[in-house]
């Protein structure tokens, strides 16, 4: 049985760890609230954007536009959104698993990392890294998304890459987040047949479809990347809150067990001392 | 009395405006247009400019930079990357941006991104004009 002093030292260390995790949980709860309301405000824009683009493509099925077909290159750009800080449970590994366990061969992937943690994991595994945007995840702004979007689009139009993907954690609610890998370009939409028949009014495009697509598709990508960033921040804080919550409750559980052990050891030492005194007294008599 | 229709102005950070209006004026890639209810369905691009929202009786103005608009018969949706009310505009900043953009355009630097500088200039002009209207 461990000595009383050992147990007490262990207790003190677990207690201070528990205090830290508890404080971290509180901090991430506050951050989560903020990120969540931001995510909710962003959603209408992304959703409306998606609707518009899918509506456009379903009504005009025979447009031949570079954004709608795969580039010649086999390379695939993947924008990977993770966090800059750890201690968020499986948040970062869940994202990187999308790539490491995914169907795209490693040699064909160009990673555009946003978030240091994911970058470190993927770099260690030998993925090819492109421009690092890790700073962005601390406080994502729409301009950041535009910048990233521009660079990736340039690579696409230059023919360096054939497809563009986005890996991020979608935020459903406080407790459920889902890692997602979505294809940004070429755009593939499921055409909803019934809906397109209902809306019989034909849409006009000014100056023409191609021009409008040229403008809208980059904006569509931007909005998806921006939405991804915002949701990822919310998910990160949600994941950290959960991780820290379970860490705190584990610490409490261990403290309870250690207190029991400590009391037993204390009782044991008292009993032992008593028997020693009695034995000594008897020996004198 | 003119017929009302729904107007939505959505920017990445918020739903900027959502309400019933009689007419809306905006600057598109093809020039300035005004839209009443039952307009022909059109999707087109937006240029930096002032959007005039004609509500029943009152006129509201806002600066909108870049984006596109989807016009349906009973609903108009502006997807704006940046949208601001007059009171949100920092005039001094806009003035400075205007001077910076003009300097860049007249400097004949090499690898100057003319398109970008011109856009910046137009954005600042729109902001300045709108904040003057507000006074």
* Backbone shape of chain B: elongated
Q: For this structure, what is the CATH homologous superfamily of the largest domain in chain A?
A: ATP synthase, F1 complex, gamma subunit
The amount of helix of chain A comes to: 55-70%
What is the gyration radius of chain A calculated from CA atoms? 28 Å
General shape of chain A: elongated
Tally of separate helices of chain B: 2
- The assigned CATH architecture of the largest domain in chain B is Sandwich
- Return residue spans of chain B where pLDDT drops below 50 for at least 5 consecutive residues: none
* Chain-averaged pLDDT of chain A: 85
- CA-to-CA gap between the ends of chain A? 33 Å
Q: Mind telling me the CATH class of the largest domain in chain B?
A: Mainly Beta
- How many runs of DSSP E, i.e. beta strands of chain A? 6
User: Which percent band covers the strand fraction of chain B?
Assistant: 35-45%
Find the CATH topology of the largest domain in chain B: ATP Synthase, domain 1
Main sheet of chain A, how many strands, which sense, barrel? 5 strands, mixed
DSSP helix fraction of chain B: 25-40%
Q: Please identify the structural class of chain B as seen in this structure.
A: alpha+beta
Query: End-to-end distance of chain B, in Å?
Result: 29 Å
* Largest interface (C-beta under 8 Å): A-B, 26 and 24 residues
Identify the quaternary structure here: heterodimer
CATH architecture classification of the largest domain in chain A: 3-Layer(aba) Sandwich
């Amino acid at each position: 049985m461990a000595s009383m002093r050992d147990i007490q030292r262990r207790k003190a260390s677990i207690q201070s760890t528990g205090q830290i995790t508890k404080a971290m949980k509180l901090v991430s709860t506050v951050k989560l609230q903020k990120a969540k309301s931001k995510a909710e405000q962003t959603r209408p824009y992304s959703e409306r954007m998606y609707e518009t683009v899918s509506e456009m493509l379903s009504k005009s099925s025979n447009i031949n536009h570079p954004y709608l077909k795969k580039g010649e290159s086999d390379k695939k750009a993947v924008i990977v959104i993770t966090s800059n800080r750890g201690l968020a449970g499986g948040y970062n590994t869940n994202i990187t698993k999308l790539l490491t366990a995914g169907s795209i061969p490693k040699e064909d992937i160009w990673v555009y990392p946003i978030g240091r943690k994911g970058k470190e994991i993927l770099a260690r595994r030998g993925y090819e890294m492109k421009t690092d945007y890790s700073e962005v995840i601390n406080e994502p702004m729409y301009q950041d998304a535009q910048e990233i979007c521009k660079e990736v689009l340039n690579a696409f139009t230059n023919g360096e890459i054939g497809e563009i993907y986005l890996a991020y954690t979608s935020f459903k609610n406080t407790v459920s987040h889902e890692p997602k890998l979505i294809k940004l370009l070429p755009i593939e939409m499921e055409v909803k047949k019934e809906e397109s028949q209902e809306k019989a009014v034909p849409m006009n495009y000014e100056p023409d479809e191609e021009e409008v697509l040229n403008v809208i598709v980059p904006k569509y990508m931007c909005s998806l990347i921006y939405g991804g960033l915002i949701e990822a921040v919310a998910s990160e804080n949600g994941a950290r809150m959960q991780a820290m919550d379970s860490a705190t409750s584990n610490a409490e559980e261990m403290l309870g067990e250690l207190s029991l052990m400590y009391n037993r050891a204390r009782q044991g030492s008292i009993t032992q001392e008593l028997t020693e005194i009695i034995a000594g007294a008897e020996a004198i008599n | 009395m003119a017929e009302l229709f729904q107007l939505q102005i959505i920017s990445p950070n918020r739903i900027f405006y959502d309400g019933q209006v009689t007419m809306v004026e905006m600057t598109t890639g093809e020039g300035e247009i005004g839209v009443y209810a039952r307009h022909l369905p059109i999707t087109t691009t937006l240029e930096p400019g002032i959007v005039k929202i004609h509500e029943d009786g009152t006129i509201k103005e806002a600066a909108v930079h870049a984006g596109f608009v989807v016009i349906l018969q009973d609903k108009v949706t502006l997807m704006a990357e940046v949208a601001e009310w007059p009171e949100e505009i920092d005039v001094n900043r806009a003035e400075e941006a205007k001077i910076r953009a003009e300097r860049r355009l007249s400097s004949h630097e090499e690898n100057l991104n003319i398109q970008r500088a011109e856009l910046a200039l137009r954005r600042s002009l729109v902001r300045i004009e709108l904040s003057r209207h507000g006074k």
